[in-house]
Amino acid sequence: MYGTATPSLTVTEVGDSVRLELAGIARGEGRSLQDAADALVDAVLRLATAVRSNGVRVTPEVPGDVELFDYLYQLGELAAAGGDVRQRLFG
Length: 91
What we know:
With 91 residues, this protein is α+β, with helices and mostly antiparallel strands. It has one domain (9-81). It is 47% helix and 19% strand. The chain is built from three helices and three strands, in the order E-E-E-H-H-H. A hairpin with a 3-residue loop joins strand 2 (17-22) and strand 3. It is globular, with a radius of gyration of 13 Å. The two termini are 17 Å apart.
C-alpha cells in the first residue's frame, strides 16, 4: 500500500513547457510548474473519481498495480470528503 507515500512523480521540460507525470498514468503540462500541477491535479482527480465510483478489476489478463489503484481510491475519498488532494499528491 502507498499508505502516506506518493507514487513516483516526474518533472520534465518539454520545449517551453513543463510536464508533471504521476507513475506513468496521469500527466499535466503547462507553461509553468503551477500550470502543469493544476493540469495534473485535474487528470488525477478524473482517474480517482472513476476508480472510486466504478472500482477496478485486476485479472491475470489485465494486470494492474493494486497499490496504485488503492492510492487513487484514497485520493477519490479525500476529494469526495472535501479534502485537498494537492497536499497528498505533492506532499
